[in-house]
């Protein structure tokens, strides 16, 4: 993962804007999200959900999220 001069995290194909990530919260818990670049997902550890990021756009719908296990 590397940062570009425009405050973006560059992953395999999808740049994610850092400012956008700082503003997003889990729609269920209102808690913080962490970025998983390997799967292009935003993770809510409290809700144990992973929200997909498609074409650089977070899909913040619980119905589109997948369950994650505590690792």
UniProtKB/TrEMBL annotation:
What are its GO cellular component terms?
cytosol
Query: What protein family is recorded?
Result: Belongs to the UPF0434 family.
The regions listed as transmembrane in this protein's record are none
Q: Which HAMAP family match?
A: UPF0434
Q: Which domain of life is it from?
A: Bacteria
- In Swiss-Prot or TrEMBL terms, this protein is called UPF0434 protein DY251_05200
Q: Which Pfam families match?
A: Trm112p
């Amino acid at each position: 993962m590397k940062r570009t001069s425009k405050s973006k995290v560059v992953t395999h194909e999808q740049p994610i804007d850092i400012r956008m990530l700082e503003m997003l919260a889990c729609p269920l818990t209102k808690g913080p999200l962490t970025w998983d670049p390997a799967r292009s997902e935003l993770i809510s550890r409290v809700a144990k959900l992973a929200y997909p990021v498609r074409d650089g756009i977070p899909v913040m719908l619980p119905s589109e999220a997948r369950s994650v296990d505590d690792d």
